[in-house]
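P.,

For your records, the input lines for the assembly:
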Amino acid sequence: MALKMDAAEISSFLYEAFPQVSGDFEIRDLQENYIEVVLVVAERHLRPGGTVSGPSMFGLADVAAYFNVLSMIGPKALAVTTNCSIDFMRKPIFGDNLIAKSKVLKLGRGLAVTECLIFSERDERPVARANLTYSLPRK
Amino acid sequence: MALKMDAAEISSFLYEAFPQVSGDFEIRDLQENYIEVVLVVAERHLRPGGTVSGPSMFGLADVAAYFNVLSMIGPKALAVTTNCSIDFMRKPIFGDNLIAKSKVLKLGRGLAVTECLIFSERDERPVARANLTYSLPRK
Amino acid sequence: MALKMDAAEISSFLYEAFPQVSGDFEIRDLQENYIEVVLVVAERHLRPGGTVSGPSMFGLADVAAYFNVLSMIGPKALAVTTNCSIDFMRKPIFGDNLIAKSKVLKLGRGLAVTECLIFSERDERPVARANLTYSLPRK
Amino acid sequence: MALKMDAAEISSFLYEAFPQVSGDFEIRDLQENYIEVVLVVAERHLRPGGTVSGPSMFGLADVAAYFNVLSMIGPKALAVTTNCSIDFMRKPIFGDNLIAKSKVLKLGRGLAVTECLIFSERDERPVARANLTYSLPRK
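Structure tokens returned:
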């Protein structure tokens, strides 16, 4: 299956649709069913003590999974997040960017089911795990 | 069981510990096992089209449940979010603040289990449901 | 909104569609958006030590939420469980039946979102919390 | 890290602790952080139409993750399931056994976090995904 959007097209889409956050994210890898997205950690993502906030990790996982689904269904389609289950497992390494590695497990007619692990750049053990489900528009 | 922190004490704690976000939230009601927290919606919480962003709703649910647990175990204790499962059910009403109504279902030795519904101010139907679990420090 | 099936009709439906388990469950209360279903605990539901097994509690929550949705959309419709998030909070009381109290939070065109608390008959504190989502057939 | 129990020891443990279900499951592979467990599908696991029931899949995922954790912490320890989030994605293939492939993502002092995919024997696409968390006994 050919991708309907590549990384450059998705970055442009992000820049137009979500200008407030478009500088936060970089697509590092994009394949069918798989994506890696970096959160460029800045002051506004941090909690006292230097930990990346829960909402920032949630946002990273959502962006990564959403881009992955978009690349497979195309830009016109309106996918809506219906569920996210996120487990926070370890403190991120201070000063590291975060990387979300996300897979599409099912792209059905009505739902897309994804899974995601989030890592600090310098650690192989996951910081968080986030599973997101999207409702897809019926044709 | 008497609360170990009241709403004013928690607001002070929030202001000191999380100054970046302390203006976003107002405690409207606080009882044993129950809390209502308002997200004062501002431009930075919105997505294009005027919808409150997923990370903002996640943040609201986390703050509400965290405050509720804190009020029961006291300020010194360090509760850490371990899991959040959130369902997005309806679009928030444009222009409305959001209200999280959160309960503590279990306050055990090691874990606190909570549930939360989020509403637009002018609608009785929930916008989102979020369940959060916290790991509690052992004595 | 009038219910499309009452408790007797659902019990008949259960008996015909799922004869293996139909003796396990009793509908105690059924209203729009709300249901109470009893699991009549038998040897086969137990783990060593007398605790009701996780799969049995999962099955109870699924049956309760499914019946509640069925009562609102009618028997012909084929609702399929897409997600369940379940928290086990306390040991059930030995010898007690279990009661699931389930609500429909959203009955949309494509998805039904429910929540459920499970109790031992003689305790007000919930044993488990289970949230189930169903994919609904499009017309 | 050496395993504290191998597959034969876990099978013996299962046989003694859960005799009612011990015939249902076979350990196919066991490594540090990883396990494969087969559900030998029988009549009692099925729903009308030949689909494996939700509770049976839940039970498989729980057994697989529990064995994996046990192999790492040893038989004396009492791990308790605190949360399971399960997504049902595709119908199992009729007549196939099911295989759970489960990983331990975090083995902390208080919690073990796992993830699991369930497959029909003759299909590479997952039937279900189940994430389970266990509370571990403090020393």
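Two observations worth noting. The interface with chain D takes residues 17-18, 20, 44, 47-48, 53-56, 58-59, 62, 80-88 of chain C (CB under 8 Å). The domain at 7-135 of chain C is CATH 3.10.129.10 (Thiol Ester Dehydrase; Chain A).

Regards
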